[in-house]
Write a structure and sequence with these properties.
heterodimer; A: alpha/beta; nine-stranded mixed beta sheet; 17 strands; B: about 625 residues; seven-stranded antiparallel beta sheet; about 20% strand; alkylglycerone-phosphate synthase activity (chain B)
């Protein structure tokens, strides 16, 4: 009941935004940074000193148990293991200091005012969060599109006098000596990227997070997607931390935990071209203080506005109601770490997907997102038809208005200024993204010259545009899957269409956020939307496309087409490649080379297929479908399993 | 059904002969003699002039003579708000009787948002027309008549035995609503009477429901509405004698219908006690304790009922079950006592019990400790349990209950006492810095010889000090225990003003105590809100017993039901949710109230399929025709 029904997205009600930079532009940043900051904590607890927190963790029953266990198994002295645990904790723990926060508040005010036109926050969401923090331990789950995200979150919470979170950050930040410590003092704690079998590490980490959460010392913040999405699509949620924060509720240590999905939408992403390069295989620069310093040239550009939407707090208790039998913890002492039962794993997994969808739903889409998808589609169609490059400005405007209305019907949270004329909206969107598009003789085209030698540059532009297009994928993904299924299916029979839908959905389940096991619901939702918008007529037996539905359907299928083509080309690569097996490391470079050749030969239209993200997802899908097998770091494949229609 | 084979004509003759024997025995029987080591008594005379109540026994056949028909306890004792709006407690029976309780009104109005102007008085009289007519099994009635065992199908008698003290039961009575009630009541006066009744019931296929003190809070006494046979309530209240006392072995052989207060009083006359003191001991009976696995306040010294019984005699449709000796412990397969204890009247009637007795304690001392918060209090109780030095009773009330207890302070007689109270309050809240909204109180009761008690007391207070506890005087302690006796009377007062409530209990491992208390209280508040209760409910708990591996926790909850169309339904939903929460937090289905019909739905999950099968097969063997058809437990 915490989630609005997905059934009718048009009825979704969302809060209004308020620009927090407005006040910053008119009053002193210094006074703002030094103002009185008195947030209210959970049940009025007083904040806890880092040293006290650390000793609580080290003295916890769980850690005690694991230390003894490790000591027994490894033959090391318990004190020795305890030392190690203490060292892990030292490396990990945050040391939030108000002075550092104030420093950041001052600096970031300056930076944000230069970079962004506005930072818009839904104040009602803040009020709900404020309320939730007082009643229950709170977990903040922001979407992750930029390094900016967590500083921005803390900045906003400081602005509204809400308790500052402690934030799970990747160890890579620790590489930046000074900055790492600064972040630590502003509330970040650091976890290693992988610590698979390290029991002691896991135990220190989970106890540390739980201790903060249970006692309500601070909201815990982490990124459900685990890492920044380079493609602007939401990533498949990672479950480790979510498992940890749900555990205190499931074991009855707290009455409830509230999880607050936060959607941060950037009109223009700071790392835009960086991401594209990374996806193309240009390695990501190592985080370093000097690197950050060099990146200061971004300060001179305009990055539009940011929208931050604090979603409805989700009660873990109500999520678990009727799904998890909490009695399963009755027979073993709760401090003894155990692998979560299958019931709990599937519960956490489903919850994670629902939370990511809750993030997606409240992502604000700027008109540029519509323009980017229209321009991309046009770009590819033109390439195929060999027409004059680009799109007439007024045609783009007309199509954008059409797409505006369609996407609203499908429930998109579109920020289209209604009081401005469409042509102004379009041109302002284009001008902000002049690095990607240019207007030339009344025609809008991607900012690339024709020619082979600029191939890499073209790919960067296309991938950047694709990442903006991807921002609206969550709105259309289910209808688009249905549209493609209709396209593929051999007849109009509903069952046939459903089978195709189900196949596509299964194949793309690492590509898009599709809740596991929800095929029927997704199919029904897609049918509902397409019927409601007059695209389809669905009877008991048949699925029929209406006369006026073709335009929408064509739009939807071409939205999914690059992905289909991409998966297809990966299949072809696997089939045509001579060796029976190749290592995982070799896979990406090899498939990239293969794709480049196809692109150059004109056998493939979509440069975005060069995205390593797509290639990895395709491999994962083929593995899941049983076409490819993983043999200890090698990838092996069975030719006959590649589905026929892909050819 | 071996024991039932002596049916037919011979039983009449036997009956008459036995009756004569009884009369003779009745004449011969002297008063209980304190000098002899073994005191014996036979089944007393039927039809003789001996009036049971005149022997100083509490419970007459016609309970309505002294007790309320639609509320708790004695008719003469009740709370009311007098014309000045002050609360007072009527009657002469209790320490609180006849006293003004000045703080209660404010607490009551403040806690529940109740108003003395808004009354919900009960239906004053039981109207016989509201009682469904009795379905009698004529043949059975005739044969009972011929045995001379008293019986009745008077409407009042039947209604009295159709309920326990669950909220929904009392609420319905106050509204004058009466559902299925027993069709007949019989009053056996000894084991043999019971044997006869059970034989006749088997012979004529009538449904028997044993009735002891009527204090059940598990819907155990509710007549199954689907029962089509004649339902006979077997009231054990007249089987109330101590048959003998064995001072060599420190045991007493007692008829199972005796109520707690009589048992203790009579034993006290001989210098002994059982020490078994459930909160309901004024009215609950020995047989009831056995049938529900009761627990007493002072179990730390004397043990719970399972530790106290040495021998049990129970009459079942298959005959009488008992052990052949009184050895203090046996290794003879599963203990058959454990089939009987907790059987909740589904297998037979407990008629006689041999119980351990102890010399009366030479010295008793109450005490109390104030803790800065509940967490510290629980930690202290845990430590006391760990060191195995728990006093006879140790109970920890949470903050809400502390305030409740405070509101029940009777008017102080002198300025000096009120000055002292003020000083105490100042010391604890201002000087020691305890937050009046967080502090909580443990009440203590020590027993034994004077020296040891004082020593023990010091030990416990020393432990308490380690957890920030401050000794807070005997008076607070004693008042805490008084609360347990008057709480049920208070519920009736609440019900006069739109407030309904109930208590329920569980047992839980130590590491879960704080979690279960917090979560269940929060769940109650949440559920009340969700169900449209207008004012926040009273949701409070206390830890009432400590064990090596856990504790017993008691929850009280009550709310103002103004504005609700079906308050009892709301109440039941909240209680149901609270029980689910208890189970989800590792608590047991019941520590001592039993399962009855109220908690049946959770039995399978509680004891596993095989466990259910075991219990069912016992029932199937012992009572294949479901004569004991109260349908509790399974």
């Amino acid at each position: 009941k915490q989630f609005t029904s997905h059934k009718d997205p048009m009825l979704k009600k969302r809060d209004d935004f308020e620009d927090i930079l407005e006040e910053r532009r008119t009053s002193s940043d210094l006074r703002y940074a030094l103002r009185c900051y008195t947030p209210v904590l959970y049940k009025g607890v007083t904040p806890c000193k880092t040293s006290v927190l650390k000793s609580m963790v080290l003295q916890s029953d769980q850690l005690h148990y694991v230390i003894n266990q490790v000591s027994k198994e490894s033959g090391r002295a318990a004190d020795d293991v305890r030392e190690e645990a203490s060292a892990i904790l030292e490396e990990m723990a945050h040391s939030l200091q108000l002075s550092t926060v104030r420093f950041f508040a001052f600096m970031l005010s300056k930076v944000f005012k230069t970079l962004f036109r506005s930072i818009c926050v839904n104040e009602e969401g803040i009020q709900r969060l404020q309320q939730a923090i007082q009643e229950h331990p709170v977990v903040l789950l922001p979407s992750h599109r930029s390094y900016m995200d967590f500083l921005l979150m803390s900045y906003i919470l400081y602005t509204y006098d809400v308790a500052l979170p402690v934030i799970a950050a990747g160890m890579d930040f620790m590489g930046m000596k000074f900055v790492g410590e600064m972040l630590r003092m502003s509330g970040a704690f650091f976890i290693r990227r992988s610590f698979g079998g390290d029991k002691l590490y896991w135990s220190v980490f989970s106890e540390y997070v739980k201790t903060m959460l249970k006692n309500g010392y601070a909201p815990v913040e982490f990124f459900l997607e685990g890492t920044r999405s380079r493609t602007s699509k939401s990533l498949t949620p990672k479950l480790g931390l979510l498992n940890i924060v749900m555990d205190p509720f499931l074991k009855g240590e707290v009455f409830d935990v509230n999880v607050v999905p936060v959607s941060i939408s950037y009109e223009r992403i700071l790392e835009e071209s960086l991401y594209a390069r990374e996806l193309l295989g240009v390695p990501k620069p190592k985080e370093s203080t000097s690197g950050l310093f060099k990146a200061r040239k971004v300060l001179s550009e305009d990055y539009g506005s940011i929208h931050v939407y604090f979603g409805q707090p989700v009660s873990v208790r109500s999520l678990a109601e009727g799904r998890v039998n909490r009695c399963q913890f009755n027979l073993v002492p709760r401090h003894i770490p155990r692998r979560p039962s299958e019931e709990i794993q599937s519960f956490v997994n489903d919850s994670a997907y629902r939370l990511v969808r809750a993030q997606e739903e409240n992502m604000v889409l700027k008109p540029w997102v519509l323009l980017a998808s229209l321009l991309l589609q046009n770009h590819h169609q033109n390439r195929a038809a060999g027409q004059k490059p680009g799109m007439a400005l007024d045609e783009l405007t007309t199509q954008a208005v059409w797409l505006r209305d369609v996407s609203r019907q499908y429930g998109a949270f579109l920020h289209w200024p209604d009081h401005t004329s469409p042509s102004e909206v379009v041109s302002s969107g284009l001008s902000l993204h002049r690095a990607l598009v240019r207007v030339c003789e009344g025609r809008v085209q991607l900012a690339v010259e024709q020619g082979v030698y600029l191939f890499e540059f073209l790919a960067v532009v296309v991938l950047s545009c694709a990442s903006y297009r991807n921002q609206m994928l969550h709105v259309f993904v289910r209808p688009a899957l249905l549209a493609s299924a209709i396209h593929i299916a051999s007849s109009n029979q509903k069952q046939e269409v459903f089978n195709s839908f189900s196949f596509l959905r299964n194949m793309f389940s690492s590509e898009f956020i599709l809740c596991p096991g929800a095929t029927v619901q997704d199919f029904e939702e897609a049918c509902y939307l397409l019927v409601k918008t007059g695209v389809l007529q669905v009877t008991q037996q048949e699925v029929l496309v209406t006369e006026r539905g073709h335009r929408t359907l064509a739009f939807l299928t071409s939205m999914l087409d690059p992905f289909l083509q991409g998966y297809q080309v990966v299949c072809r690569f696997l089939c045509e490649e001579d060796t029976e097996t190749l290592t995982e490391k070799q896979f990406i470079p090899a498939v990239r080379k293969f794709i480049v050749n196809h692109l150059l030969a004109g056998r493939l239209r979509y440069a975005e297929v060069l995205s390593s993200d797509l290639q990895k997802n395709a491999l994962a899908a083929l593995q899941r479908l049983g076409a490819v097998r993983k043999i200890k770091g090698y990838v092996g494949f069975h030719h006959p399993c590649v589905p026929g229609w892909l050819d | 059904m071996a024991s039932n084979s002596s049916g037919g004509g011979s039983s009449d003759r036997q009956g008459i002969a036995q009756q004569r024997l009884r009369i003779i025995a009745g004449h011969l029987r002297g008063p209980v003699d304190g000098d002899s080591t073994i005191l014996a008594a036979e089944c007393k005379a039927q039809g003789s002039n001996t009036d049971v109540s005149s022997e100083g026994k509490t419970v007459p056949r016609r309970r309505q003579e002294i007790m309320k028909w639609n509320g708790w306890g004695y008719s003469d004792s009740r709370f009311l708000f007098n014309k000045k709006g002050q609360a007072e407690f009527t009657g002469k029976r209790y320490r609180l009787s006849g006293m003004i309780i000045p703080g209660l009104k404010d607490w009551f109005e403040g806690t529940f948002g109740a108003n003395l102007q808004h009354k919900t008085p009960p239906t004053p009289l039981l109207t016989n027309t509201a009682v469904p007519p009795a379905t009698l099994n004529e043949a059975f009635v005739e044969e009972v008549k011929s045995t001379g065992i008293p019986f009745s199908h008077d409407a009042e008698d039947r209604v009295f035995r159709a309920h326990g003290h669950c909220l929904h039961e009392i609420f319905a009575l106050r509204e004058g609503k009466i559902g299925r009630v027993p069709d007949m009541v019989v009053w056996p006066s000894c084991h043999n009477d019971v044997v006869k009744i059970v034989q006749l019931a088997c012979k004529h296929n009538v449904c028997l429901m044993p009735y002891g003190g009527g204090t059940s809070v598990s819907s155990a006494l509710e007549c199954p509405p689907e029962e089509t046979r004649s339902i006979v309530s077997l009231d054990t209240s007249q089987m109330n004698r101590i048959l003998w006392i064995d001072e060599k072995n420190l045991t007493a052989h007692v008829e199972a219908g005796i109520v707690g207060q009589d048992l203790e009083r009579l034993l006290n006359e001989s210098g002994y006690c059982t020490g078994h003191e459930p909160d309901s001991m004024e009215f609950s009976s020995l047989g009831g304790w056995v049938a529900t696995r009761a627990s007493g306040m002072k179990k730390n010294i004397y043990g719970n009922i399972e530790d106290l019984v040495v021998h049990i005699k129970m009459v079942t449709p298959q005959g009488v079950i008992e052990k052949s000796c009184q050895g203090p412990r046996m290794s003879t397969g599963p203990d058959i006592h454990h089939f009987i204890m907790g059987s909740e009247g589904t297998l037979g009637v407990v008629t006689e019990v041999t119980m351990k007795i102890r010399p009366m304690p030479e010295y008793q001392k109450y005490g109390s400790v104030v803790f800065p918060n509940f967490e510290q209090g629980v930690a202290c109780l845990r430590e006391v349990a760990k060191q195995r030095c728990a006093p006879a009773s140790i109970r920890l009330m949470d903050n809400e209950q502390f305030k409740f207890g405070h509101a029940l302070k009777p008017q102080v007689s002198s300025i000096f006492t009120s000055f002292l109270d003020g000083l105490k309050k100042f010391y604890i809240t201002k000087f020691k810095g305890f937050d009046p909204n967080h502090l909580c109180v443990a009440t203590l009761l020590f027993e034994g010889n004077r020296e040891k008690v004082l020593q023990h007391e010091k030990q416990v207070y020393d432990i308490a000090a380690k957890f920030g506890g401050l000794a807070a005087g005997e008076d607070n302690g004693q008042r805490g225990y008084m609360l347990t006796f008057v709480i049920a009377y208070l519920r009736d007062l609440g019900m006069d003003y739109y407030v309904i409530g109930e208590s329920f209990e569980t047992s839980v491992p130590w590491d879960r105590v704080l979690d279960i208390c917090r979560n269940v209280k929060a769940r109650i508040i949440r559920e009340c809100k969700d169900k449209g209760v207008q004012f926040p409910p009273l949701s409070t708990c206390r830890v009432t017993q400590t064990y090596d591996a856990g504790a017993c926790v008691y929850f009280y909850f009550a709310f103002n039901y103004r504005g609700l169309s079906d308050p009892v339904h709301v109440y039941e939903q909240v209680e149901h949710a609270a029980r689910e929460e208890i189970l989800a937090n590792g608590g047991s289905l019941s520590h001592h109230h039993g399962v009855g019909k109220l908690r049946k739905e959770w039995m399978r999950d509680t004891i596993s399929n095989v466990g259910m099968g075991m219990l069912k097969s016992v029932k199937d063997y012992v009572d294949p025709n479901n004569i004991f058809g109260n349908r509790n437990l399974l």
